[in-house]
Amino acid sequence: MIYLTTDALEQGVYFDFRSHQPLGRGTAPSYVGLLGNGVHEVPVQLKRYRGSLEVIFGNSELFRFVDEEMLRGMVQEVVTATIH
User: Fold this and answer.
1) Which one is predicted more confidently, 29 or 4?
2) In sequence order, what are the beta bridge partners of 56?
3) CA 34 centroid distance within chain
4) 0.85 exceeded by the pTM?
5) Which of 10, 12, 67, 72 has an alpha carbon 20 to 30 Å from 26's alpha carbon atom?
6) Are 46 and 54 in contact (CB under 8 A)?
7) Three-state SS for 10?
8) What are 9-25's pLDDT values in tens digits?
9) Phi, psi at residue 38, to the nearest 5°?
10) Which residues contact residue 53 at a Cβ distance below 8 angstroms, ignoring those fewer than 6 apart?
């Protein structure tokens, strides 16, 4: 579990990198994680494509308290550093 930032209510926002799921021979790998603040959690799916990483969030009330695009960038940085 990795602490990323605090939300508007001063609760810590964390990312938990759960698993790596190869999608099959010749396809990009997929990674799964969980993003949350202790009250609201949202599943995260990450897909690698030709050197870039796509971060896909589910819907959550979490994004009422912290900026989604900022978190997307933070998760992207953490995962890129972890999988290289």
Assistant:
1) 4
2) 45
3) 6
4) no
5) 72
6) yes
7) coil
8) 999 999 998 887 665 56
9) 95, -25
10) 46, 47, 76, 79, 80
- Largest Cα span, the chain: 44
Please name which of 70, 84, 51 lies closest in space to residue 15, comparing C-alpha atoms: 70
Beta bridge partners of 32: 19, 45
Give the DSSP letter of residue 40: -
Residue at token pair 């609201």: 40
The predicted-structure confidence for 36-75, as pLDDT tens digits, reads as follows 999 999 999 988 877 788 899 989 999 999 999 999 999 9
Residue type, 38: G
Give the tokens for residue 35.
């993003």
Q: Which residue has the tokens 């989604």?
A: 68
